[in-house]
Specification:
Blueprint: H1 2-14, E1 31-34, E2 37-41, H2 54-67, H3 75-79, H4 82-95, E3 99-103, H5 106-117, E4 123-127, H6 132-141, E5 144-148, H7 153-162, E6 171-176, H8 188-197, E7 201-205, H9 220-223, E8 233-237, E9 247-251, H10 253-262, H11 264-267, H12 274-288, H13 291-310, E10 322-328, H14 330-344, E11 346-347, E12 350-351, E13 361-366, H15 373-391
Parallel strand pairs: 2-11, 4-5, 4-6, 6-7, 7-8
Antiparallel strand pairs: 1-2, 3-9, 8-9, 10-13, 12-13
The protein binds pyridoxal-5'-phosphate.
Pyridoxal-5'-phosphate binds near residues 110, 131, 180, 205 and 207.
Length: about 400
């Protein structure tokens, strides 16, 4: 085995594609403790700064006191606690959907939904830069997977027209709400109109939208004022703006019932620890009441974008906390990331192919409501110095 695996690992090293973990020794925050010192953190998905919030920690402790730690079994055996149920009801209420269903992770939610809704003889249409879990789910489903050009309705139309005469029984269009590596919003009104035109269903993975966009953080579907008929499948995660862990799907009675009956990644896995559900429910309450945090975040995003423009740095068309800086090759992205860390004690990890297309390796800079304006200025100064050092 060693001999078989070693060459591919060496190749990864040589191509600057080797993936490595850093050891974090404290909670998430604008500063982060690493094994080898404290750094400014600009790559977390904890956008509202709730992951270390005292009320969420207290809810987790209370939950552990009441329910212990392990859920003991899957939801359908005896693992579905009142804590899980209360969170599902709160999420459904928040998102204005009849029901919501918890999954252990967003990855599992996407696998569960897509494989329950489409299969052999059906078609799934996905934005080319959708999150890997949506793509993997499409592949696993056995449906015909077609990837249209990023946010390109004409491309989607072409794919749908081509198969208008095929016997595909069901058609599902799946998209990120906020694209996880680019930070832009999916054109949801046009996607939903297209879905209705071709009698397809629209699924929105709003992992990076809920909590950040829309009224009280209700996400991209709310931002574009789409109702349940227009976007019948809404998925979100509890690990980003919520500051907790887990994921959910919100939708109609029939959708949720179908998932409970059929979604293998729901049925054949242990339920989340109930204490996590309690923590996430507190995260939801904080997120809902979090307009001040969202306003602060918006101001930081604007400050960062204005500053970057003044420095001549080209950012992508994103108004969300995800502000990628395209660098080029994997090696260049790794170099800039390393300069920021070594010279400026700023952590922004490099995102490389295959996570992003070849030639578009980047620093995926993310902002968080806990950052200060001074910290954003520090980041800008470091990016300026770092990019200049790169060209020397
Ligand atoms: C758009 C999107 N969907 C799904 C996921 C997966 O969620 P989880 O981390 O809960 O598995 C992520 C990232 O984590 C994501 O960015």
């Amino acid at each position: 085995m060693e001999e078989t695996l070693a060459p591919a690992l060496q190749r990864r090293h040589a191509q600057s594609l080797y993936r490595q973990r850093r050891i974090v020794t404290g909670p998430q925050g604008s500063r982060l403790s690493l094994d080898d010192g404290s750094v400014l953190n600009f790559c977390s998905n904890d956008y509202l700064g709730l992951a270390n919030h005292p009320e969420i920690i207290a809810a987790l402790k209370r939950g552990a006191d009441e329910y212990g730690v392990g859920a003991g079994a899957s939801h359908l055996i005896n693992g579905h606690s009142r804590a899980h149920h209360a969170l599902e009801e709160a999420l459904a209420d928040f998102l204005g959907r009849p029901r919501a269903l918890l999954f252990s992770t967003g990855y599992m939610a996407n696998l569960g939904v897509i494989t329950s809704l489409v299969g052999k003889g059906d078609a799934i249409l996905e934005d080319r830069i959708n999150h890997a879990s949506l793509i993997d789910a499409g592949l696993l489903s056995g449906a015909r997977l077609q990837r249209y050009l990023h946010a390109d309705i004409n491309s989607l139309h072409k794919h749908l027209q081509k198969q208008a005469n095929t016997d595909d029984r069901r058609r599902l269009i799946a998209t990120d709400g906020v694209f996880s590596m680019d930070g832009d919003l999916a054109p949801l009104p046009a996607l939903s109109a297209t879905a209705q035109h071709y009698n397809a269903w629209l699924m929105v993975d709003d992992a990076h939208g809920i909590g950040i966009i829309g009224k009280q953080g209700r996400g991209t579907v709310d931002h574009f004022a789409l109702d349940q008929n227009q976007a019948p499948v809404l998925m979100g995660t509890l690990s980003k703006a919520f500051g907790a862990f887990g994921a959910f799907v919100a939708g109609s009675e029939a959708l949720i019932d179908t998932l409970i009956q059929q979604a293998r990644s729901y049925i054949y896995t242990t339920a989340l620890p109930p204490a996590i559900a309690e923590a996430a429910r507190t995260g939801l309450a904080l997120l809902q009441a979090g307009d001040e945090r969202r306003e602060k975040l918006t101001a930081l995003i604007q400050q960062f974008r204005n500053g970057a423009e003044q420095l001549g740095l080209t950012l992508m068309a994103s108004q969300t906390p995800i502000q990628p800086l395209i660098v080029g090759t994997a090696r260049q992205a790794m170099t800039l990331s390393e300069i920021l860390l070594q010279d400026h004690q700023i952590l922004v990890s490099a995102i490389r192919p295959p996570t992003v297309p070849e030639g578009s390796a980047r620093l995926r800079i993310t902002l968080c409501a806990n950052h200060t304006a001074t910290q954003v200025d520090q980041l800008l100064a470091a990016l300026d110095a770092g990019t200049q050092k790169m060209v020397q």
